[in-house]
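Re: Re: ligand-bound prediction request (bumping)

Still looking for help on this. To restate: I need the protein modeled with adenosine-5'-diphosphate bound, output as structure tokens. Inputs repeated here so nobody has to scroll up.
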Amino acid sequence: MHIVFAASECAPWAKTGGLADVVSALPKTLVKMGHKVQVYLPYYRQVAKAVPDLPVVLHSVTVPFPSYNRFVRVLDGGDADGVQMYFVDAPELFDRESFYATPSGDYPDNAERFGTFCRAVIEATKVIGVPDLYHVHDWQTAMLAVMLRSIYYFDPMLRHVPAVLTIHNAGYQGTFPPRTMETLLLPWDMFTFEKLEQYDKVNFLKGGIVYSDAITTVSRTYAEEIQTAEFGNGLEDTLRRRAGDLFGILNGADYSEWDPAIDPHIAAHYSVKKLDGKKECRRDLLHAFRFENTGEETAVIGLVSRFATQKGIDFIVDIMDRLLKEDVVLVMLGNGEEYYERLLVEMAERYPDKVRVQVKFDNVMAHKIEAGSDIFLMPSRYEPGGLNQIYSLKYGTIPVVRATGGLQDSIDEQPDGSGNGFKFWGYDSNAFLEAVQRALTAFRDKKVWKAMMLRAMSQDFSWEKPAEEYVQVYERAIQNRL
Ligand code: ADP
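Reply:
Sorry for the wait, this slipped through. Here it is.
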């Protein structure tokens, strides 16, 4: 099967979160299974810095706008583990400081940026090779599915090519003013509640849900959750209407990147067979956070997260006073909303002996925290898939999570301690604190803890099984469009 991925992120080139990890790992696995995969990504400033002067595949792809045309280039990003990368080069849209936003808000022309990208990918594939299926991701590329079934409706090359949309996070929908219909040359009759309109805005994600042949999301529980008002963010009815074509596939982990036995970013290697290295990683982490005098009995609690309301950062702040009465230190890495950045920096200032925070995006430090912590916190309000808890398991770092989305599907707490982590239900910081306390009780019992670590590390969340599930969805979508 020939599959084209169109996405706004792909590790290691452009990453803000889990989307990038999925768009990097799933294609690699599909290639190993014998499929042909090409990934299209915007040529952001950050990508251009990392890989300048790439060969040009297409010198000029025309993307029409109401009173002018844009002309973008397609660059050959080479072959990475059998996956062909293509970059869409439009400097006026993508040669910017960030991918989506400045600290003061989203780029005002995001509809034009990602609309251009979607159309450029369609046009490019018509020259480079039309696939058997397009796999699009989140609102940024959802419009590709909309365009296929509207302005490209009569294109004989594309008529039978389906699109599958993966929703990595229904909290981000890409909503723009009505005039966006005209900007992107979409027919006004699609600006209805059944199609693209939502609360008088053009909603890109909604368009993708309506027009894709199949929709997937990154865990089974989240696939159910988003069909309810609590998690659907207004799109629950639209999603319920597509329930027959909606599938939950739990993300895998890319163990070529996230495995303490081979991880190049950590101080020492370790595995189920030889655990010793974890102590060295712990020492290294404590050194990096200037907590050198921390004894073995003290639990090192780690957090790596986007700082956003979604991630339940306020639960952590809520329990801080009570949590710090325990024998713990807290090391946190993250960035995002300024409000949470400031809140956590304040916490670190208030409790200098027990709390440290690094406000930045730092992949190496993320690996060090996974490896060097004893316990990992993920009290997310909602969590479509979540990758850090899956990485934590592999690193023998026991997760404490809120039972939602992919956290619910991957973390199992058992009263007799035979699970792989700890979890709490409800929006309740007391319940969160109790779950952390249960983890600390287990931590103090060395035998119980080691057994739990080994059990967690032995679990296999590799991409092979989810990739097979994706192929089943692809095959069904292709079949249905014949
Ligand atoms: P989300 O996509 O909602 O942010 P996931 O758990 O699915 O959450 O994926 C998060 C990914 O981003 C993980 O690979 C995690 O290590 C990484 N990450 C998040 N914040 C940072 C940060 N500040 N520095 C480095 N990596 C980070």
